[in-house]
Write the structure tokens for this entry.
Amino acid sequence: MKPYVRKQYWNRPTMSWWERAYLPEILRGLSITGGVFLTNMWHWMTFRKGALTTYYPEQTRPDYAAGNRGKHVLTQRPDGRPQCIACNMCATVCPAKVIEIEAAFDPDDPVHPKYPARFEIDYSRCIFCGLCVEACPEDAIRMVKEVPNLPTYDRQQLWLSLPELLNWNPQRDVAKPYPAKAGSENTAKGGADKTKGPT
Amino acid sequence: MMQDLVVYLVFIGYAVAVLLVFGTVLTWVERKQAAIMSDRIGANRAYVRIPFTQIKLVWLGLFHGLADGIKMMLKEDFKPNSYDRFAYALAPWVVFTPVLLVFAVIPFGGTVVPAKLLQSVPSVAAWFGDRTYPMQIARVDAGLLVVFAFGGLTIIGTMLAGWSSSNKFSLLGALRAGSQMISYELIMGLTVLGLILIYGTVDLNAMAQQQSGVLLGFLPAWGIFLQPFAAILFLTAAIAENKRIPFDLPEAESELIAGYYTEYSAMKMGLFMFAEFIEIAIIGALFTTLFLGGYNLPFMTDEGFVLPGNHVVSIGHAAIVVIQLVVFLGKVLLVSSFQILVRWTLPRFRWDQLLRFAWKFMFPLALANLTVTAVVVWALHA
């Protein structure tokens, strides 16, 4: 049996004697961290902000990344009803299983007789993958740059339902045309079963 | 006799208050300093609401320490099914008590003359007479030896905790703590020996008083200028003794959960944490007394300032006492802050590196330092 020879790695770290003395390098590291401390402390003491942190629930950053998609919206027909046909494709494709749809029948609208009586998204589990948007055959669900203002002490508050999802206000996404905002008509028509307005 | 009792009760009250306040405030300092060092804000959400109003006092997150304390008091005191309940319950106290006791021999101020302080009340002043008291709880000649004796007791507590928890991680942590603390205590002792040679005493108060002189005409005669090497070695060994990063192998959370106190919860675990934070202050106090001139500003004695060139500026007794108390606390806080800076800068050692560092690097250095000091002291005195 061959004697065990420790493998020599080609990228073995080599240190100079100065680095191996350890103490000077420690002092260098301490001066870096101490310098950062003193700089930030000076900022705080002169009433400026010495940190990069945003005080989150009270403040939000205006400069989200260009590709950020943090909120679901349901698109609407010109009369304000949701474009969704309750086909459940988004709920099926959703990897986190956060979408719950309850379909209902509307005899007044022969073109789209199926509509969502209940459409809820659980933001406590949503992973913001965007698969629901890709799966939708009707362009009924989209994701916009805004983030839902969600911080809360109650887990139940993280379930957003039809009114919140329809009451959206896209500001920057110009890739696709949105239906024109028709004044107060654009806001959601109340709860789940009242969504279907008179046609 | 009664006078002694009154004065020493005041001293003891002051010392306990200082230590407990340091223990609580240092948790806050650690959080905030770490945050500021890494461009963050730090804990600032805990508040105290004034009853019947909506005024919330946040005070830069100072109340987080209070919240921690309340949480630890109210938590379930989980007890493992251990075969040694007594040792399990005893261990936190064996760790906590010696840490408090060490402060008994550390002088936190110069000599106080109660009769001079209380001049405005002649009857009390007369009662005290011409008694003088060095501001130190226990006036022991063997001051430094007491420090090391009590410091050594902490090892027993950690070993007890690890052994009686009947948990592999605890036992591993305790073994690591034992070998690490014994190794580094030796180095602490060796580095201090040089100072003992120079000052010719182990009485901490006498050491502090000798440091108010002048070296070479302009330097304050602080231990750090007499023994710069020993100062670095002492601080390193002291941090290792306190088991903090970069020497936190006994409680390395990524390897051993929490090391020897894995099985402790509620206030028992709080005692371990509290002891650690108080020990930061104790190390600061020791380092201040041994190397940073104790409670005195540079060129300052119990009578006033003696600037280089024999300019004497005398100050009133009350002012001197206040200055000394404040200066001592300030120096302790600075050294504690430096320890926290070290803790948030350096990565953890590997276990074999830790012991090799102690025995093959620091031990010979401490010995060499001691030898050189001994030769120089002998040459100067001969």
Q: What stands out?
A: The beta strands of chain B are 48-49, 56-57, 111-112, 133-134, 214-215, 219-220, 304-307, 311-314.
